[in-house]
UniProtKB/TrEMBL annotation:
GO molecular function annotation: GDP binding; GTP binding; GTPase activity; GTPase binding; molecular adaptor activity; protein heterodimerization activity
CDD domains assigned: RagC_like
Keywords: Cytoplasm, GTP-binding, Hydrolase, Lysosome, Membrane, Nucleotide-binding, Nucleus
Catalytic activity: GTP + H2O = GDP + phosphate + H(+)
Domain of life: Eukaryota
Function: Guanine nucleotide-binding protein that plays a crucial role in the cellular response to amino acid availability through regulation of the mTORC1 signaling cascade.
GO term, biological process aspect, one: cellular response to amino acid starvation
Annotated protein name in UniProt: Ras-related GTP-binding protein
GO cellular component: cytosol; Gtr1-Gtr2 GTPase complex; lysosomal membrane; nucleoplasm
Family listed: Belongs to the GTR/RAG GTP-binding protein family.
Compartment(s) where it occurs, according to its Swiss-Prot or TrEMBL record: Cytoplasm; Lysosome; Lysosome membrane; Nucleus
Length: 331
C-alpha cells in the first residue's frame, strides 16, 4: 500500500492551548459534528493523530498544549514532525484572556520556523461568535500587533503569520480551512484555470471543487466568492451525502455513499440550479447556474467530462514521485 500513503497530501498541524477549540474544530470540519455537541467534548490531552487520510484530501494532526508537551523534552521529536508539515494552525480562544496563548504561539512558531522555514503559519482567532464586529477587528489588530512585535524582538521578521477570524457556529471555520489548504496546493493555479475554462464554456456562474468529507473547497473559479453561494453548496453536499447514506446503501449497510456515479441536481425557487458531480474519490464539483443555462445540459456534461479528465491528469502528474507508482488513488 505504499502508493496510497498520504505523503503528498497537504499536511496540517492544529495546535493551541487546552480548551481553545481544537477538538471542536476537528469534529465539526471533519466529522460532521454539530457545533452544539462540542460542548460535551472531553478535552484532548495528548498529541492526537486523526485518521482522516483514507476519507479526505487533507491529512492533519492535532497537537495539544496541556502543559506537559514540552519542546525541551528529548522524546518530543519536533524536528521530524515540523519537517513534514505544510501548515501549522495555531488556535487562540478570542473569548478568553490570550496572554498565555500568545506566549505559546511565539514559542511554537519560532521553534517550528527554525526546523522548517517553509511552513505556513496560520493563526485562528477562534470563538469570535461571542464578539461584536468592532470587537473582532480590535482583537485581530491587537493579536497581530503583539505577535509581530515579539517576532521582531526575536529577529524573526521574516516569519509571516496569517490571521483568520473563525467560529464553528458559522461557515468561517470552513472558509479559513479552505484558504489554508489551498495555499498548500502547488496545482492551485492549474485547478483555477480549469475551473475558469469549464464555467465559461458551460454558462455556469460559480463552481467549487470540494473535499466532500470536510466541505473545504480546494479551488474555485476566479469570480469572487460570496459566503451565501459557498454555504448553499455546502448544504447541497450535506443533503446529497445524507440522502445517499440513508437510501443509497445496501440493506446490510455495505456500499458507498459517495462514488463514481454520485451526482445531483437541485432546482431552487429563484431560477437557479445547483449541480453536483463526482470528480475523484475525495473531490466533488458543485456549480451554481441559471435555469436557462441548464437547458444545454448535454454541453455541460460533455464539458464536465473533459474537466474531470483534466483533473485526474493534474493530480497524477503532480504526484508522481520519480517513476514510482501512479498515485491516482491518492486523490
Ligand atoms: P481543545 O481542548 O482545544 O480541544 O478544545 P475543545 O474543542 O474541547 O473546546 C473547548 C470548548 O470550546 C468547548 O466547550 C467547545 O464547545 C467550545 N468551542 C469550540 N469552538 C467554539 C466556537 O467557535 N465558539 C464558541 N462559542 N465555543 C467554541
Amino acid at each position: 500500500e505504499n502508493c496510497s500513503t498520504s505523503a503528498d497530501k497537504p499536511r496540517i498541524l492544529l495546535m493551541g492551548l487546552r480548551r481553545s477549540g481544537k477538538s471542536s474544530i476537528q469534529k465539526v470540519v471533519f466529522h460532521k459534528m454539530s457545533p452544539n455537541e462540542t460542548l460535551f467534548l472531553e478535552s484532548t490531552n495528548k498529541i492526537y493523530k486523526d485518521d482522516i487520510s483514507s476519507s479526505s484530501f487533507v491529512n492533519f494532526q492535532i497537537w495539544d498544549f496541556p502543559g506537559q508537551v514540552d519542546f525541551l523534552d528529548p522524546t518530543f521529536d519536533s524536528e521530524m514532525i515540523f519537517k513534514g508539515t505544510g501548515a501549522l494552525i495555531f488556535v487562540i480562544d478570542a473569548q478568553d484572556d490570550y496572554v498565555e496563548a500568545l506566549e505559546r504561539l511565539h514559542l511554537t512558531v519560532s521553534r517550528a520556523y527554525k526546523v522548517n522555514p517553509d511552513i505556513n503559519f496560520e493563526v485562528f482567532i477562534h470563538k469570535v461568535d461571542g464578539l461584536s464586529d468592532d470587537h473582532k477587528i480590535d482583537t485581530q489588530r491587537d493579536i497581530h500587533q503583539r505577535a509581530n512585535d515579539e517576532l521582531a524582538d526575536a529577529n524573526l521578521e521574516k516569519l509571516h503569520l496569517s490571521l483568520y477570524l473563525t467560529s464553528i457556529y458559522d461557515h468561517s471555520i470552513f472558509e479559513a480551512f479552505s484558504k489554508v489548504v489551498q495555499k498548500l496546493l502547488p496545482q492551485l493555479p492549474t485547478l483555477e484555470n480549469l475551473l475558469n475554462i469549464f464555467i465559461s464554456h458551460s454558462g455556469i456562474e460559480k463552481a467549487f471543487l470540494f473535499d466532500v468529507v470536510s466541505k473545504i473547497y480546494i479551488a474555485t473559479d476566479s469570480s469572487p466568492v460570496d459566503m451565501q453561494s459557498y454555504e448553499l453548496c455546502c448544504d447541497m453536499i450535506d443533503v446529497v451525502i445524507d440522502v445517499s447514506c440513508i437510501y443509497g446503501l445496501m440493506q446490510d449497510g455495505s456500499g458507498c455513499a459517495y462514488d463514481k456515479e454520485s451526482s445531483a441536481i437541485i432546482r431552487l425557487n429563484n431560477s437557479t440550479v445547483l449541480y453536483l458531480k463526482e470528480v475523484t474519490k475525495f473531490l466533488a464539483l458543485v456549480c451554481i447556474l441559471r435555469e436557462e443555462s441548464f437547458e444545454r445540459k448535454g454541453l455541460i456534461e460533455y464539458n464536465f467530462h473533459c474537466f474531470r479528465k483534466a483533473i485526474h491528469e493534474v493530480f497524477e502528474v503532480g504526484n508522481l514521485p520519480q517513476g514510482a507508482c501512479s498515485s491516482s488513488n491518492n486523490l
